[in-house]
Design brief:
The structure holds two protein chains of two kinds. Chain A has 13 helices and 19 strands. Chain A is of the alpha+beta class. Chain A folds into two domains: about 70-185, Uridine Diphospho-n-acetylenolpyruvylglucosamine Reductase, domain 3 (2-Layer Sandwich); about 190-415, Vanillyl-alcohol Oxidase, Chain A, domain 3 (3-Layer(aba) Sandwich), CATH 3.40.462. Chain A is globular, with a radius of gyration of 21 Å. In chain B, helix 1 (about 20-30) packs across helix 7. Chain B has a single domain, classed as Rossmann fold (3-Layer(aba) Sandwich), CATH 3.40.50. The N and C termini of chain B lie far apart (about 40 Å). Chain B is built from nine helices and seven strands, in the order E-H-E-H-E-H-E-H-H-E-H-E-H-E-H-H. Classes of the chains: A alpha+beta, B alpha/beta. The interface of A and B includes residues 11, 18 and 321 of A.
């Protein structure tokens, strides 16, 4: 096949740096070359944004990976409707830098700004406001998708099946080349934050259930070390965009500051065992003690939403073996599973550096969209402990039995037979996939490993 | 596809009746493995091993070869990849013969056979398998070497030297594969109680094939280029290697 874009063979892995594989990589700068690639491809093809999915979702061993960095256009804000059209490869970082000075913000931001718009749709990412505002794709007015059978502009009204299959569809319905996003107006780039500390998990969860609806943003951090028979130290952080009047005089000149680029970068030669029992314990201790308990403190938006973005390539801290992130969601009445999971991890003696708990509001019609109403817990595990693969398999079983699911954007190790159990509407997804990609051109290491499309 | 912990879904075994390979396959079969190709010389034993696997693995195929036929090495690997029915995540090279030192050392034909079976054929197969995996963009290779090749001894130098050749070949091949998405693991077990060593006196640190399999899985999970089994042999042999020949000669075993 002759391509109008350059391709080169490259090893690629996800943010967790496990299971690297090699594929050809192309960097198209326009939609027509993507159309040409998908029309003529003979092996698997998948799109890749900024490579922030943790596992193997944005790589295609032996096939072709389309790097969307060239489709990074950011249009003008339509002030009347509060919407903006952006390219599929545009990063939320650049988008925020462009819209915050005019008093707008994205409706949903995940824990990092370094994700592409296409990736945010493909993983249907969520943020700290999911309990109120839902996931990213809820705020997509329409999007244009290049598929092997043609290019379609879809919305919840126009071809809703393709629209919702693409939300959380992990790039397997096509390449999102552009999207129109609904923005929210903000007065300042500061967040008014209330923090509370808890020593018992049930107190924390009861508080979240009772009063989360008073806040736009809410997330809890758990200290997996501070466990003693039902005792789990935690910090609940909740807030909303600060109105202009809430800023003290000294901040008035900085009311719409945009987030900057990382000031620190982890060197490639980071020591192998930087993340260990002692450093994790110290970090958790420091986090707990440093958390402010005074209500109404002001935080810059970047520090509130994206605390890790201040350090470039922080994933290298986990050492050369990489790490896996495990995130599951269960129904509101299965909050017991959160305690059960934390207890299972604690008794295994395996470290989780980060444990983040959040309540989800209602999910979307997307058959592979992760978020469903209830609780979600996210955990980070550096590779290495002997019992880790088995521990995560055990957690899968607990989650599946409770009617929950794990997040595909973070998965690197799920047992394939659990996919249809966790995502019971998989067949709806497959039906759309057959329609737009009858020859099975779209594929990723994730889709092959889990048998998402056949 | 291999998962984050190096757990394969599709495996090819060259030397499909090896006890260590059998232990490994049992573990893969109980996990995520759904396709296995067993290649070997003994049709009966191969079929029996395949039958056992069919209880838990949906796709099991066998391929016959004889490691004295070097003309067939590349072809055998290609046939195994075709028989897998999907991308191959892991190739286990468990081909080899312990031989009989006293009879082998004075007989040029037997020496040629030992070198062919333990070095030439496996090296040719490794080269073909590595190229096929590179083409796929991913995969792992496990090469069964031995501590006997790490420092060769009077008592088994025909076997030991041929294995030393394979070990060195695999080291170089593994280096060349860096950054390709293909990873190679060299396994250096000590004395393993298997059908290959039946009737021979056990050396210190002797282990069963189950222990070797467990050590290999850990090593693969952690991405170790060289896996010793038991792990303590890494340190034992780093000392033994430096012993003066006069002392080395006097060691028992």
């Amino acid at each position: 096949m002759t391509l109008t874009v350059d391709v080169s063979a490259q090893p690629l892995s996800g943010w967790g740096r496990t299971a690297p594989t090699t594929s050809m990589v192309s960097r198209p700068t326009d939609t027509s070359s993507i159309e040409e690639v998908l029309r003529t491809a003979t092996s698997g093809v998948i799109a890749r944004g900024l490579g922030r999915s943790y596992g193997d979702a944005a790589q295609c061993s032996g096939g072709l990976t389309i790097d969307l960095a060239g489709l990074d256009s950011i249009g003008a804000i339509d002030e009347a409707s509060g919407t903006i059209e952006v390219g599929g490869g545009a990063s939320l970082h650049e988008l925020m830098r462009s819209i915050i000075p005019s008093g707008w913000f994205v409706a949903v931001t995940p824990g990092t700004r370094y994700v592409s718009v296409g990736g945010a749709i493909a993983a249907d990412v969520h943020g700290k406001n999911h309990h109120r505002d839902g996931s990213f794709t809820r705020h997509v007015v329409e999007m244009t998708i290049v598929t092997p059978t043609g290019t379609f502009t879809v919305s919840p009204e126009v071809d809703p099946d393709l629209f919702w299959a693409t939300a959380g569809g992990m790039g397997l319905t096509g390449v999102v080349v552009s999207a129109t996003l609904r923005l929210i107006p903000i007065e300042t780039s500061w967040i008014l934050v209330d923090s509370e500390r808890f020593t018992r998990l049930d107190d924390l969860m009861a508080t979240m259930e009772a009063t989360d609806d008073r806040y736009r943003y809410s997330v809890a951090w758990l200290d997996c070390f501070g466990h003693r028979a039902g005792n789990h130290r935690s910090v609940l952080t909740r807030g909303d965009h600060a109105p202009g009047a809430a800023l003290p005089d000294r901040l008035q000149g900085r009311s719409r500051e945009v987030p900057g680029d990382p000031r620190l970068r982890v060197p490639r030669s980071a020591p192998r065992r930087l993340v260990n029992r002692m450093s994790v314990r110290a970090l958790n201790e420091a986090w707990f003690r440093a958390s402010s308990t005074a209500p109404g403190s002001l935080k810059p938006l970047a520090g509130f939403f994206h605390p890790l973005d201040g350090v470039g390539s922080w994933n290298l801290l986990y050492g050369p073996d990489g790490f896996v992130q495990y995130q599951f969601a269960v129904a509101p009445e299965r909050g017991d599973l959160v305690e059960e999971a934390v207890a299972a991890i604690a008794s295994s003696g395996i470290l989780s550096l980060i444990a983040v708990l959040k309540r989800f509001g209602p999910g979307t019609p997307g058959p592979l969209s992760f978020s469903q109403e209830g609780w979600t817990l996210a955990l980070d595990f550096p590779l290495g402990p002997p019992g880790l693969p088995a521990l995560l398999d055990d957690l899968d079983d607990l989650v599946a039995q409770a009617g929950g699911r794990v997040y595909l954007a973070k998965d690197a190790r799920l047992r394939p037979e659990l996919l249809p159990v966790m995502y019971p509407r998989l067949a709806d997804f497959t039906a759309v996939s057959r329609r737009v990609d009858p020859d099975g051109v779209l594929a990723s290491d994730l889709s092959r490993r889990l048998g998402i499309v056949r | 596809m291999n998962d984050a912990f190096g757990r394969p879904q599709s495996v090819v075994v060259l030397g499909g009746t090896s006890d260590i390979a059998h232990e490994l396959l049992g573990r893969f079969a109980a996990d995520r493995c759904r396709s296995v190709v067993l290649a070997g010389r003994n049709r009966g034993q191969l079929e029996q091993a395949a039958e056992d696997l069919r209880h838990s693995v949906s796709h099991v195929e066998t391929v016959l070869f004889d490691a004295v036929e070097t003309d067939d090495a590349a072809k055998t690997v290609v046939r195994c990849f075709e028989a897998a029915g999907e991308a191959v995540d892991l190739v286990i090279v468990a081909v080899g013969e312990l031989g009989h030192q006293e009879q082998d050392e004075a007989d040029p034909d037997r020496i040629a056979r030992m070198v062919t079976v333990n070095f030439t054929w496996p090296a040719m197969a490794l080269s073909t398998a590595a190229a096929a995996l590179e083409q796929q963009g991913h995969g792992r290779i496990i090469v069964l070497s031995t501590v006997a090749g790490y420092r060769v001894r009077r008592s088994n130098y025909v076997y030991g030297s041929a294995k030393a050749g394979l070990d060195g070949f695999a080291q170089g091949l593994g280096e060349g594969l860096r950054g390709s998405g293909v990873r190679l693991h060299i396994v250096r077990p000590g004395f393993v109680r298997t059908k290959m060593t039946v009737g021979r006196p056990a050396a210190p640190f002797a282990v069963g094939p189950d222990r070797v399999a467990a050590d290999i899985l850990r090593g693969v999970e952690r991405g170790q280029a060289v896996i010793w089994s038991p792990g303590v042999l890494r340190w034992v042999f780093s000392v033994l290697r430096l012993l003066p020949q006069a002392v080395w000669r006097r060691l028992p075993g």
